[in-house]
């Protein structure tokens, strides 16, 4: 079943004299039980898309879409209250900036306990309270927090960014949502905990059939267990399709550069080499190139690229480039 189906999502920042299109006609769909990766350099618009899906962008952003279907219901046509209800029960998000998303005035225990689903059954208050504590404890052990007494009785500002990130993950998975949007969920974590979090998310997908939209600028952690990859550059979806196909037959020069920055992509490349294949950096929204936004950095750019390339679709694989790569990668 199609869980999420987004067509031509556009997100603009409108000021008194300009309109800046931060996300430009993006398509994204995901079926029940699937894991999809949304990748692209910092500043591509990944977090904006995630926030638009859960409906938490503030009013400065103007959002339009031909459709934003959640299990067949168009979220764009719902009232805020109806939308909050759906999103609250079915979709959870791990925010990129956990310390800013946690409530600074409440202790961690209360914040996690609030996200737990209502307990069914009867029982004495004390017994229910005990059960609640046990469930919170079990949740934070799951995300790799061992020192639960100290963490649960702390306020967010008393904890490191890494621990806050784990707390955020615990809160997001507490209700076993149908869709988990994980926005760079492991950036503040050390490598062993990162691996543990990825294992946890993978098992939630496999055992609970939880769909995951994994946002990352790194592919290596998710490539082995994601069904699809969506590559975003500067607010435009440059390529999307089944993971294996994108990996073996990328058509867009930007995807190729991303893949080349992975470890072991080519023999002898032991470590990640960030974007050695592309010079320059992603432009700011105020200085977007016309036509294909990769133009100034693209080794294959030609005159025609000043016109925005159309999206070519081929067996579930789509890409937007006037001069796509032909050869399959090894
Ligand atoms: N609150 C904001 N005000 C102005 N520009 C913003 C704001 N948030 C994001 N942007 C801009 O929107 C673009 C996309 O940002 P974002 O979605 O955070 O990218 P990503 O998550 O891929 O790193 C960037 O150019 C960023 O500078
Ligand atoms: S359209 Fe042109 S500039 Fe854009 S990726 Fe393709 S070749 Fe490069
Ligand atoms: Mg982001």
TrEMBL record:
One of its GO terms (molecular function) is ATP hydrolysis activity. It comes from the Bacteria. It is a peripheral membrane protein. Keywords: ATP-binding, Cell inner membrane, Cell membrane, Membrane, Nucleotide-binding, Transport. GO terms for biological process: peptide transport; transmembrane transport. This is ATP-binding cassette domain-containing protein. InterPro entries: AAA+_ATPase, ABC_Ni/Peptide_Import, ABC_transporter-like_ATP-bd, Oligopep_ABC_C, P-loop_NTPase. It is found in: Cell inner membrane. Belongs to the ABC transporter superfamily. GO terms for cellular component: plasma membrane.
């Amino acid at each position: 079943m199609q869980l999420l189906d987004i067509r031509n999502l556009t997100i603009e920042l409108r000021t008194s004299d300009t309109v800046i299109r931060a996300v430009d006609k993006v398509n994204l769909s995901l079926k029940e039980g699937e894991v999809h990766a949304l990748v692209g350099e910092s500043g591509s618009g990944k977090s904006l898309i995630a926030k638009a899906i859960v409906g938490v962008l503030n009013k400065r952003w103007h959002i339009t879409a031909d459709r934003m279907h959640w299990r067949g219901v168009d979220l764009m046509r719902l009232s805020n209250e109806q939308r909050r209800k759906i999103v609250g029960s079915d979709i959870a998000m791990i925010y990129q900036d956990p310390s800013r998303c946690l409530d600074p005035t409440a202790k961690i225990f209360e914040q996690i306990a609030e996200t737990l689903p209502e307990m069914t059954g009867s029982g004495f208050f004390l017994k229910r309270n005990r059960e609640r504590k046990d469930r919170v404890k079990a949740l934070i052990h799951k995300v790799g927090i061992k020192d639960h007494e100290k963490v649960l009785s702390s306020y967010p500002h008393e904890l490191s960014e890494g621990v806050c990130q784990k707390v955020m993950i615990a809160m997001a998975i507490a209700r076993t949502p149908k869709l988990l949007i994980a926005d760079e969920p492991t950036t503040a974590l050390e490598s062993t905990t990162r691996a543990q979090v990825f294992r946890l998310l993978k098992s939630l997908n496999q055992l609970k059939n939880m769909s995951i939209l994994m946002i990352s600028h790194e592919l290596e952690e998710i490539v082995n267990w994601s069904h699809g990859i969506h590559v975003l550059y500067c607010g435009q979806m440059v390529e999307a399709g089944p993971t294996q196909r994108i990996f073996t037959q990328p058509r867009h020069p930007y995807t190729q550069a991303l893949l080349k920055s992975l470890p072991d992509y080519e023999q002898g490349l032991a470590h990640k080499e960030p974007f050695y294949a592309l010079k320059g950096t992603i432009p700011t929204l105020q200085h977007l190139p016309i036509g294909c936004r990769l133009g100034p950095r693209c080794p294959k750019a030609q005159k025609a690229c000043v016109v925005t390339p159309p999206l070519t679709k081929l067996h579930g694989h789509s890409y937007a480039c006037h001069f796509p790569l032909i050869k399959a990668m090894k």
